[in-house]
Amino acid sequence: AQSVTQPDIHITVSEGASLELRCNYSYGATPYLFWYVQSPGQGLQLLLKYFSGDTLVQGIKGFEAEFKRSQSSFNLRKPSVHWSDAAEYFCAVVLGYGGSQGNLIFGKGTKLSVKP
Amino acid sequence: DTEVTQTPKHLVMGMTNKKSLKCEQHMGHRAMYWYKQKAKKPPELMFVYSYEKLSINESVPSRFSPECPNSSLLNLHLHALQPEDSALYLCASSQDGQGAYEQYFGPGTRLTVT
User: Fold this and answer.
1) What is the distance in angstroms between the Cα of B18 and the nearest Cα belonging to chain A?
2) Do A46 and B103 count as a contact with CB atoms less than 8 A apart?
3) What is the distance between the alpha carbons of residues B42 and B32, in angstroms, rounded to a whole number?
4) Which residue of B has its CA nearest to A94?
5) Residue B94 predicted with pLDDT over 80
6) Which of A36, A47, A62, B31 is the most exposed place for a label (fewest CB within 10 A)?
C-alpha cells in the first residue's frame, strides 16, 4: 500500500543549529510532495511543495526540501533553527490526479523541539 | 491572500445538541475539504466538495452532514455526536479537487462533546 514515512517521531535541536526532517514515500511513480507545519492547536501551514522540475525547492520561513527520486525521499532542511520553529511537521503526498488519487496522504508527523 | 477562515474557534456541545461549523475562503478555489484531527495524529479526510458537489465521503457517520452553499462556503452540521468525536476539525481549500494543486488549511475548530 502507498504510504508516507516520517521515521523520527520527535527531534530536539539547539537554537541556531541546522535541521533535517526525513520523509520517505512508498509509491511507484513520483507523487506530488508537500511539507506542512502545525503549531499547537492551530491549522496546517504549507511550507513548500514539489510537483516537478528542480529537485531543490525553497519554501517559506527559510525552509528548503530536496526530492531524491532514487531514495524516494523528500527531506526538509533549515540551516539555522529559531525557537519559533518548534512545532509539528507533516510530510504529505498526492499520488495522482483525480478521485481518491488526488487526496493528501500524510505521514505521522515529526515533533520539533528547540533548546535555547 | 491564502486565508481560510473557520468559526467558531472552540465549541462545546452535548450529545443531544445540533451545531454547525463554518468555513470560508475567498481565493476562488473550487474544492473544499473537511478533515478531523485527533491529538498527536495527522489529519484524516472526511469530505471533499468539488465545484460545489460532494465528490468524496470517506465513510463518515451520518451524524456529520456537510453542506456547500456556494463555492466560498462550507458547513459541517453536527447532530447526536459521541464523546469520541471530540477533535480539531480542519477545513481546507484548493484550486480543484483533483490533486494537482496544494491545499490551504484554516485554523480549525476545537470541538468537545460532553
Assistant:
1) 24
2) yes
3) 18
4) B99
5) yes
6) A62
